[in-house]
Write a structure and sequence with these properties.
- It is a single chain.
- The chain is α/β, with parallel strands linked by helices and 340 residues long.
- The chain has a 6-stranded parallel beta sheet with strand order 2-1-3-4-5-11, with helices on both faces.
- It is elongated.
Length: 340
């Protein structure tokens, strides 16, 4: 993957590969262009794909980034990778969309920090007039999108709720849950919470305390500690991957009973917890594959194809047995992304 434009034999080769891939996509979807238009389209495909996500301090996003990089290497696409600085960095994310346009990007893959903030939707509309914008992982309620990559986060929460409802059906002994999740205005956390509560409806399991925070380890650990103080003796702690990672550390130092842990999405730490018995289950939405799909869809959009709906992997509920069987693929442990 080439991260900065350099005039070299290698960069020329990469551009030719990107052009060939884009033209193949165009042919596959039935697009026609006269010879003079083909040359213009080939030039367009040499433009980089701009990646804008909340942050890479969450291992989940690192796995998305690994998928982006691997597909970029396979197709010869150029990536410009940016972090917004967290889910509260809305102004920074808006500014980064302008940066993508200024740097001549051919498409944007946007992991939105908000699903429907007016300033972000306006920035998406501005960008979409010059290049395709696609939602990556997080929901984005923008009418100008050229496509969306990910899963329905309601289904992620519903998978956890259904799992607990099956374990604790109505009429059995009641159990209590502490729930730690992401920001209330993010493009995934409210959806996940709604799905979780729908899955628990009518069961013997009840959420007794809920906390929201940005999805960094420090912020999530703070909320886990609050939940354990606020509701001592809960049976389950259901939380984000960083929340569960922090809780595993607390459990290792605990002298008494500790709630069973269920993660609402995957990370390297959660996978380790599944394998050693500290984590009961997690819904797996294959973040590496979502990154790969993102690059493919961006190239398709640059070739003129817009996608309706959301494209992404099938969600699977993974327990310890499946984790031990190697059914969870994530980024390598030492993987790092070069950030612009």
């Amino acid at each position: 993957m080439k991260l900065k434009t350099r005039k070299s034999c290698w960069s020329n080769r990469v551009r030719r590969m990107g052009r060939a891939y884009a033209l193949a996509v165009a042919a596959a979807i039935g697009l026609y262009a006269p010879p003079d238009a083909v040359e213009a389209e080939g030039a367009q495909q040499a433009q980089p794909i701009c990646i804008v996500v909340p942050h890479f301090k969450d291992e989940y996003w690192l796995s998305v980034g690994f998928g982006l990089r691997e597909e970029a290497r396979r197709t010869g696409a150029e990536l410009l990778i940016h972090e917004s600085g967290g889910y509260h960095a809305l102004d920074r994310q808006v500014a980064l969309l302008d940066t993508c346009r200024a740097r001549g990007a051919g498409a944007v893959l946007l992991g939105a920090v908000s699903a429907d903030d007016p300033s972000l939707l306006e920035a998406v509309a501005r960008s979409a007039r010059e290049m395709p914008v696609l939602a990556l992982v997080n929901e984005l309620r923008a009418p100008d999108l050229a496509g969306a990559i990910g899963v329905d986060w309601r289904d992620m929460g519903r998978a956890v709720g259904d799992f607990l409802a099956t374990r604790h059906p109505s009429g059995t002994a009641p159990v209590t849950i502490g729930f730690v999740t992401g920001p209330e205005d993010s493009g995934w956390s409210p959806l996940l919470e709604g799905g979780l509560r729908a899955g628990l409806a009518g069961s013997a399991a009840e959420i007794v305390v809920t906390r929201h925070a940005d999805s960094g380890l420090r912020e999530q650990l703070r909320e886990v500690e609050f939940v354990l103080r606020q509701a001592p003796g809960i049976d389950y702690l259901v939380g984000t991957a960083p929340a569960v990672e922090g809780a595993m550390g607390l459990a290792a130092r605990s002298d008494g009973d500790f709630p069973q842990l269920i993660a609402t999405y995957i990370s390297h730490s959660v996978r380790r917890g599944l394998r050693n018995g500290q984590v009961v289950a997690v819904p797996f939405d294959d973040p590496v594959e979502q990154g790969r799909i993102g690059v493919r869809m961006a190239l398709e959009a640059m070739a003129g194809q817009r996608s309706e709906g959301t494209r992404g992997p099938v969600i699977r509920l993974i327990d310890a047995d499946a984790a031990k069987a190697g059914e969870i693929t994530l980024s390598p442990a030492d993987f790092k992304l070069p950030i612009e």
